Amino acid sequence: PEVKKATQGARVMLALDAVGGRAAQEAARCLSPGGTMVTYGCMSKQPIPVSGGQLIFKDLKFIGFHLDRWAASATPEDLAEMWGLLFQLATSGHLQGTVEQVFKLGEGALAVVEAAREQRNGKIVLQF
């Protein structure tokens, strides 16, 4: 109901998943028939539960994406275009990250411990 309201009833054809587990399962439920789930991370370290019905009756597609693999086969023009777009989105405020905690350089060991902790709500930043 929340997704339908947020999208004003529009079809949801793409879901991006960095978490896996239950979060991915919920995102897949929001997909319209013929939709695609792209998984690019697995922060929960849990498998993505996929039902036969989602594959058969909703014709959903589940694919993985790894940036390093893509970058290895991308042309220099593709890479320049990608970085240009990301830079433009970031500087315009359309692409933002959530920062959970900022550590000073001397607190590097603490930053590593915090970065390895599960169930974080944002990025760990090491400030130089």
Q: If you had to describe this structure to a student in words, what would you say it looks like?
A:
With 128 residues, the protein is an alpha/beta fold. It is 41% helix and 18% strand. The chain has a three-stranded parallel sheet, with helices on one face. A two-stranded parallel ribbon has the order 4-5. Strand 4, helix 6 and strand 5 form a beta-alpha-beta unit. The longest helix has 16 residues. 8% of the residues are buried. The model has no long low-confidence stretch (mean pLDDT 92).
H-E string? HEHEHEHHEHE
Low-pLDDT parts are none
* Alpha-carbon distance between the two ends: 44 Å
Q: Tell me the β content.
A: 15-25%
Strand order of the largest sheet: 1-2-3
Total beta strands:
5
Number of helices: 6
Largest sheet, in brief, is: 3 strands, parallel
Provide the residue-averaged pLDDT. 92
> What integer value in Å does the Rg equal?
18 Å
Which class best fits the helix and strand makeup?
alpha/beta
Q: State the helicity in percent bands.
A: 40-55%
In one word, what is the shape?
globular
